[in-house]
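We both want to read discrete structure tokens more fluently, so let's practise on a single case. Once you have written the record down, we can walk along the chain together.
***
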Amino acid sequence: MLRTILDIYGLDQNSAEIKPFGTGLINNTWTVNTEAGKFILQRVNHTIFKTPTDIAHNISLIGTYLSAYAPDYLFVMPQKTVEQEDIIYLPGDGYFRMFPFIKGSVTIDVVTTSSQAYEAARQFGRFTRLLAGFPADEIKITLPDFHNLSLRYAQFENAVLHASRKRMEEATDIITFLKQQVEIVQIFKEISGNGLFKKRITHHDTKISNVLFDKDDKGLCVIDLDTVMPGYFISDVGDMMRTYLSPVNEEEKDYSLIEIRDDYFKAIAEGYLSEMNSELTGLEKEHFIYAGKFMIYMQALRFLTDYLNNDVYYGSLYEGHNLVRANNQVALLKQLIVKEEYLKSLISF
């Protein structure tokens, strides 16, 4: 099947070397080495992204805009097929696309230095800044309500009403805590109706592996644009805080290992603001740390909701897996709340 795709792209399948690539959980990815060059081939998960052609539409529009208004920016456009298509569909196999492999580039699965956090934050900030003049209403929504905290909270409340007695008993403490933090939802509702909070083109998935680095750990550009949609800056900044600040990830069962690394927070703030300081309004800057609370709280809600719903979305590798994940995120949120005032002192607007 994969070699058939190479024919569609006009590549010699007989001499091609195809290998699995990366650690992404949503799309399947391979490297393709051919006499014509090296490429990245992906199968888009259309159970998550219901209309993959909308993603291709968005990438094409953004690429065209950047080539006109920011021609020096490295933007990785899809490889065209022989028929000049950006994405293809094979019945029974799904949607596929191919990108050129950027020579000398590397991706990082886990952020290990504050300088990496700075570079990633700078790249995500630059991406949004360069698209400040882009007509956001032309972008198609690839994941409706992806970061709609009001909806996530309503789903949580519904799950509480219908959960089994056993799971409710096991989750009593965390349910109580998350309900006590409902102000985070109220603030999101206020943001959503305030014109001083601007909807911009944001990435919405700012994990470190979505940045290309060079061999010296300098950021080159952002990649994996499936989730690029109009949104608030808190989505991108918050997701960086959620995934960069702690030395352990959301799978960690020993919550005592979860902490907020001050130098990583400062790196995120300095990197993002090096590009976005002049773009953010005063009200947005006042909510910089709220961004972290927003994303961590929402992910805790989502993990707990899935646990209460018998693990129908994320799945579960062991009994109570999603409850562990939810408590992990609550531990991180508590650390952020404790340190909030000190962290504010580290930001220079």
User: Anything to note?
Assistant: Strands lie at 17-20, 28-34, 37-44, 88-90, 94-100, 200-202, 211-213, 219-222, 229-231. The chain has a mean pLDDT of 94. The chain is about 45% helix and 10% strand. The longest helix spans residues 321-344.
